[in-house]
Each structure stands twice: as structure tokens, then as C-alpha cells.
Design a protein that fits this description.
The structure is a homodimer. By secondary structure, chain A is of the alpha/beta class. Chain A has two domains: about 80 residues, Winged helix-like DNA-binding domain superfamily/Winged helix DNA-binding domain (Arc Repressor Mutant, subunit A); about 110 residues, 3-Layer(aba) Sandwich (Rossmann fold), CATH 3.40.50. In chain A, helix 1 crosses helix 4 and helix 2 crosses helix 3. The longest helix of chain A is centred in the N-terminal third of the chain and has 19 residues. Chain A starts with 11 loop residues before the first helix and ends in a 13-residue tail after the last helix. The C terminus of chain A is likely disordered. The interface between A and B is large, with 73 and 69 residues. Chain B binds a DNA duplex (30 and 30 nucleotides) through helix 2, helix 4 and strand 2.
Chain lengths: ~230, ~230
Amino acid sequence: MPSDRSRRRIPDATVARLPVYLRILTEQAEEGVDSMSSDRLAELAGVNAAKVRKDLSYLGSYGTRGVGYEVAYLVYQIRRELGLTRDWPVVIVGAGNLGQALAGYGGFGERGFPVAGVVDIDPGKVGSVLAGVRVRHIDELPSIVQAKRVSIGVIATPSLAAQDAADHLVAAGVTSILNFAPVVLTVPRSVEVRKVDLAVELQILCYHEQRRGGGLHAVTTRSATA
Amino acid sequence: MPSDRSRRRIPDATVARLPVYLRILTEQAEEGVDSMSSDRLAELAGVNAAKVRKDLSYLGSYGTRGVGYEVAYLVYQIRRELGLTRDWPVVIVGAGNLGQALAGYGGFGERGFPVAGVVDIDPGKVGSVLAGVRVRHIDELPSIVQAKRVSIGVIATPSLAAQDAADHLVAAGVTSILNFAPVVLTVPRSVEVRKVDLAVELQILCYHEQRRGGGLHAVTTRSATA
DNA sequence: AGGCATTCGTGCACACGTTCACAAAGCAGG
DNA sequence: CCTGCTTTGTGAACGTGTGCACGAATGCCT
């Protein structure tokens, strides 16, 4: 019985913060903390306490007034809401620099996203083994996706190959894509795409950096925690 | 004196989109396109046309009614506003999997962010050369930052070392940080931090994926939760 | 020159997100 | 039980972002 509550829509901004709370709570649980206030969690997450409470209230009323939240229970509820009660195998397209780094990044599988496969279009790369996973040809994508029930694909190809990779993923039945290539992908409405763009992030930093320089003085330490 | 306009504050949401417009416009310019309407740019960027116009209007009135925008001029203006008229050397902390991939990623330097150095705390990694850059010890960070006037640092360390890396960067004088480690960093107010968190992105995809499955069809994986 | 088609720039209304402030609800101690 | 302290949950105000709709400006054609 997924409760009534699980049908409720949670704001995007909140969904984006839940993973952060989850990580912090998990860490705290490991350190033996079993109860925590919204104030403390807010401090650790670097956000406003009211925001924490409102975010958590979308999951239900799992706190105890005057006391706080029971860490273990909250961890369970967030995991359930995010759909993390089971593993979500991912397939990586592109076995270049980035693809290798991603496949080799241990925290991937540990966090519930085992690498179901790595594929590349270059026959020269097919067959090599990286981080215990053999690179296979992109033509095998559909069989990998179906065999392992993969619904998440990661694009780690050069820009020019990214749209092609997306097309392959969609054709194979993948419904969520994490795209590291700096291009805007065209996919069916039903497919969810999230983008991680290094250059964009750097350019945003750059904007603020340049703007700061426009001031006059080279200010430095104004220490404060978030 | 164009500076009047450059003092104006541009909304964060717009700043985050400008790099996308910039990339598209640059590509189009290379393909010989020299004029473009907001409609066309919106289509290529996957956003609303009114949004494109409003975004660009923060830079000034650089369009021509009835015609569109001159691509080359717009490229120049966006680059100027983002502060991309000069190179911004970056220093990478952490020479592990990710650090190597980042240093080896060519598009880095090409886009105006040359790698001024890669440092690690592990003496075993110091001295090795990756992508033409020799890995140096983290103690050399201050001299690298000062010698090359670095203001942007990239953290590519394991989680546990990230706060330490941030402290080193701040102490060395870096004022902008791009953090790949899944932790919340504590830094002085004057330092700008942006986060790229793989696990968070995957978990967000996951939420929607799970939610979609919550429909009716008795697909796949419902049975096998631990 | 005048009319028509096109496209920019922007005012306005609405949606979304954040923060404050406070009542409600619990615990502790006498 | 009652008082006082703590912390949640949420209504309401405020701020930011989005998208429509339309006037204003421009080019083209006759």
C-alpha cells in the first residue's frame, strides 16, 4: 500500500534537495546520531531551517514537536519517496575519458546505481575492460537494456555523438537520460533528460568572478558558515 | 563607455542560460549563419522564445526588429558579459579518476579554461604526468595560484578530502570553486561555490522514473524489491 | 510613399520558491 | 497537573522566474 501521500506531487526544488538531506542523514546515522532537529539538518545542508521543514512535510508529518526527526525513519521515508528502495542499473554510452572515470567511480554502484554496461561505437574500444566492466558495441545496447531492465542511460560521448547516443538509448527503451555532453538533446516528451555541463558551470562562476573584479577592492576573509 | 549596462544585475536563471545560447550561436556562426531570430534560437536551445528575448534584453537592445540578431555581435556581447574575453586558468585538486578525466578533457582549455595545474595530497601520485600536466603536491597550490593568477579551483577529490581541499584553495586565494564531491562545503561568504553531484542527478531521475512506474501497468520490477 | 509582414522589447499576470512568524504539540521537571 | 521550554508544521507575505500578448520598430514589395 503506497500511501495516499506518495501520489502527491513534490515540488522540483524539493526533490533536488532530498538527496542532500538523505546523504547527510545517512552519514549521521552511521555516526550514531538517531534524532535530529530541522535546525541542525539545515545547518549541515547549508539551507534555511524552515525550508527543511517544508521539504520534509511533503513526505508527511514524520517529526515530533519539541524533539525533532528520528534519523533512521526519515532516511527510510526519503529513500522510499525517491524510489531508492531498489537498485537502478545504468548503462553508460561512451568509453572515453569520462566514460571510464564514471565506470570506475565506485560510489556509483554503492549508491544503488550498478553499471549494467558500457558501450561505445568505436570497435577499437570494444572489448577492453575498465573497472571490471567489458566495453561492448553500441549495437548490443537493446539487449543490455532489456536483459537488465535498465531505465537510466548516461551519455559520456563527445558532443557530436551525443544526439546519436540519445537516439540509441531511446530506441532501446531507456526513459531517463543523464547527459554530460554540452548539447541540447531532442528526445520524446516521455523521456526525462538532465544535463551536467562542465563548461556552463565554469562560465557561471566566471560571470561572478568578473563581476566581482568590477568592484574596487580585493576583499578577502569574511568568514561565516552558510 | 558600455559599462553602465554591465553594472546591471542579471538574474541567475538568465546567467545560467547565456552559456547555452553562446554555444549555439558559436556553432551557428561556424556554419555560416550570420543572423538569427529569437524563435530559431529558442528552438535550438529548447526554451521559450519570449524567454530568449528577455534574457538577451538584459545585455542591451542588440536585436533588430523584423530581422533578428546578428550572430557574431551577439556572441561578442555574451562573451563580454560573462567575462569570457580572457582566459580563466583553473587548478584541479585531486588526481584520481575524475581529476584525470577532467585534466584530459580537451574542451577545457579550448573553451578558455586552461589547466594551470593539478595537485594531489598523495605523494604517490605527485610527479606523474597526465594529459601533459605534471601532478604536483598540494603544498605547491599557493605558488601555482599566485604565479598563474588562478581564481577558479576544481575539487575532484573523494568526499572526505573535499573540505580540506576547499580550505587549501581558499587559503591560496581562490575565490570560485566547482565542487564534484558530494558534500556541502563551508567557505567564507566571499567565495562562490557551485556543485556538480552525480548521485543527486541520478536520484532525481530516479524519483521521476519511479513515479512514472506508479501508474497501473504491472511492469517489470515491482516484484523484486529486497 | 504607403501598406504589410516580421520580429524585437517589455508590461502584466500568474506560477513557483523562499522565508517569516506563530499556533499546535510534545517533553521535562516539580 | 500545570508551567515553561523546545521544535514542528503551515498560513501568509514576499521575491524570483515564466510566458502571453501587444505595441514599436524595421525591411520588403508594390
